């Protein structure tokens, strides 16, 4: 039997894992799975079957992708209802980086900006 991949989790370098985990919980509906270390230097959050991990790093080492390559997210989530999710994030007070729109290649998408300036994008394939 061939081994298969069963999931993935991006790791974001952040200034403060507690602030990041709480932002994703409070603004984006994730659940904090756990903090690691005293004080915490690592955290895992989850929403649906998707995980993100945060690792503490010095601020000068944190460089969001868009600062290197224009219009490049650090994490891109595929979703089944971009409009409803967008409304949820607007209502929660999330920092919307770019508003919901339909791309020329058939994706309904939007993005948020988190406390470390990472662009996190959400897209739905239009059938």
Strand composition percent:
35-45%
Low-confidence stretches: none
Sequence of secondary-structure elements:
EHEEEEHEEE
**What is the tally of helical segments?**
2
- Backbone structural class: alpha/beta
**Radius of gyration, whole Å:** 15 Å
Q: Can you identify the CATH superfamily?
A: 2,3-Dihydroxybiphenyl 1,2-Dioxygenase, domain 1
Task: Tell me the CATH topology.
Answer: 2,3-Dihydroxybiphenyl 1,2-Dioxygenase, domain 1
Mean pLDDT over the full residue set: 96
CATH structural architecture: Roll
The top level CATH class name = Alpha Beta
Brief summary:
The chain is an alpha/beta fold and 127 residues long. The chain is built from two helices and eight strands. It has a single domain, classed as 2,3-Dihydroxybiphenyl 1,2-Dioxygenase, domain 1 (Roll), CATH 3.10.180.10.
List the helices and strands and how they pair.
Blueprint (H helix, E strand, L loop, with lengths): L8 E6 L2 H12 L2 E6 L5 E6 L2 E7 L18 E4 L3 H11 L3 E7 L4 E7 L5 E7 L2
Parallel strand pairs: 1-4, 5-8
Antiparallel strand pairs: 2-3, 3-4, 6-7, 7-8
Account of the 3D structure:
The chain has a single domain (9-125), classed as 2,3-Dihydroxybiphenyl 1,2-Dioxygenase, domain 1. The protein has 127 residues and is of the alpha/beta class. β3 (42-47) and β4 form a beta hairpin. It has 2 helices and 8 strands. The protein has helices spanning 17-28, 82-92; strands at residues 9-14, 31-36, 42-47, 50-56, 75-78, 96-102, 107-113, 119-125. The strands form 2 sheets. Strands 1-4-3-2 form a 4-stranded mixed sheet, covered by helices on one side. Strands 5-8-7-6 form a 4-stranded mixed sheet, covered by helices on one side. The termini are far apart.
């Amino acid at each position: 039997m061939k081994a298969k991949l069963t999931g993935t989790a991006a790791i974001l370098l952040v200034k403060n894992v507690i602030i990041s985990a709480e932002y994703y919980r409070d603004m984006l509906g994730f659940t904090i799975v756990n903090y690691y270390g005293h004080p915490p230097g690592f955290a895992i959050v989850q929403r649906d079957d998707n995980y993100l991990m945060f690792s503490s790093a010095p601020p000068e080492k944190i460089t969001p992708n868009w600062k290197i390559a224009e219009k490049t997210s650090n994490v891109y989530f595929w979703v089944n209802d971009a409009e409803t999710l967008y409304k949820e994030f607007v209502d929660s007070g999330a920092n919307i980086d770019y508003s919901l729109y339909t791309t020329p290649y058939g994706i309904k998408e939007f993005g948020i900006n988190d406390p470390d300036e990472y662009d996190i994008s959400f897209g739905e394939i239009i059938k």
